[in-house]
């Protein structure tokens, strides 16, 4: 199976310094819409056998721009963004000022964040959520090409699940980049990394 994952285009929250997860169902910014339109011309988005999309607005808008309004999309809640609980929509600076210990050296939340953010989803829970999704893909589309349009943390978790490593092994996923893994169905779905964060 050839699995290609694309993060949504720039949302209204991106660049504002706000935590933006599953509870912030914002759309694309004007710049994000224009960027997605530009990228839609640079790649063959219709080459895939199946396309799955997060049901969140920013992912759906990106999918429609890249593939067209009539594209056959399957929405799956297991590839929504990570749920940051009560910290969703809060200023990252405010959180850092109070809890600097939950940030890694790249300025992203580390695994300890869930101990401080009420009602949040842990990294382990996110990886478990997407792991079930990936296993279903293996069963249904073993020898096919699949495109996912989802979110940054979700993408990192999918890579972590497939390669059986910590989420922190993968850096920030940029908007509308290609992230691709070949899973060899003839060798117990042994993964091979084709690309990560490749600009289209």
Automatic annotation (TrEMBL):
It is an enzyme of class 5 (isomerase). The active site is at 8 (tele-phosphohistidine intermediate), 81 (proton donor/acceptor). This is Phosphoglycerate mutase family protein. Substrate binds at residues 7-14, 58. InterPro entries: His_Pase_superF_clade-1, His_PPase_superfam, PGM_Phosphatase. GO terms for molecular function: isomerase activity; phosphatase activity. It comes from the Bacteria. Its EC number is 5.4.2.-. Keywords: Isomerase. GO terms for cellular component: cytosol. SMART domains: PGAM. PANTHER family: BROAD-SPECIFICITY PHOSPHATASE YOR283W-RELATED (PTHR48100), PHOSPHATASE C1620.13-RELATED (PTHR48100:SF44).
């Amino acid at each position: 199976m050839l699995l290609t994952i694309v993060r949504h285009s720039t949302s209204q929250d991106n660049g504002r310094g706000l935590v933006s997860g599953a509870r912030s169902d914002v759309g694309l910014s004007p710049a994000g819409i224009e960027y997605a339109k530009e990228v839609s011309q640079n790649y063959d988005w219709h080459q895939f056998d199946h396309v799955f999309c997060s049901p969140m607005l920013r992912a759906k808008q990106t999918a429609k721009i890249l593939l067209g309004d009539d594209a056959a999309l399957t929405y799956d809640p297991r590839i929504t963004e990570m749920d940051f609980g009560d910290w969703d929509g809060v200023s990252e600076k405010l959180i850092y000022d109070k809890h600097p210990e939950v940030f890694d050296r790249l300025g992203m939340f580390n695994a300890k964040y869930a101990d401080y953010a009420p009602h949040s989803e842990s990294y382990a829970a996110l990886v478990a959520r997407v792991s079930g999704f990936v296993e279903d893909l293996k069963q249904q589309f073993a020898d096919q090409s699949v495109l996912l349009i989802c979110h940054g943390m979700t993408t990192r978790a999918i890579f972590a699940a497939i390669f059986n490593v910590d989420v922190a092994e993968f850096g920030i996923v940029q908007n509308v980049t290609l992230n691709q893994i070949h899973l060899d169905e003839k060798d117990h779905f042994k993964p091979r990394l084709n690309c990560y964060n490749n600009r289209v």
